[in-house]
Amino acid sequence: MTKIIITENQNGCYHALPASLIKEIAISSFAKYVSRIPYFAEWPKNLIEQIVLLLVEEVYMPNDIVVEASLSSDGLIIVDVGVLAVYPASDDDVIYLIDGDYFGEISLVTTEVSATPSVVALTASKVLFLDKLAFRRLMRGHPQLFFAMKEIINKINN
């Protein structure tokens, strides 16, 4: 993982690639994660690709706090590489997240502030972050899909 990031940041060839090729690399690398999330599984391919292009890569070192307890989430987080530990406030059971796991999807469809558990990187990790405001701007053109997703998430969480 680190070698890829170093290559992307320091290799002049990567920066010289056409924007369309860099876009295709992102789509081929991350579309599988987005399309595996049940809420997005039946969505059109072009919409999945637009969501992928909104993803922001974030890198965390071991013991870095990914999400601090009791703060509301600002979007969906997908684990690309690494192991994260979720420490729920009310439960002693630690949950581990690995490549392809995700959390924070409720924040995409609600404005309610909900407390989140602490999430800490156990290994060097790269996550993909989907900002809820960027997602909502995109979904203005797809209100039926947005409200269907909201309904499913509300049923699961109530």
TrEMBL record:
Annotated Pfam families: cNMP_binding (PF00027)
Lineage: superkingdom: Eukaryota
Annotated PROSITE patterns: CNMP_BINDING_3
Annotated Cyclic nucleotide-binding domain residues: 39-139
Name by which UniProt lists this protein: Cyclic nucleotide-binding domain-containing protein
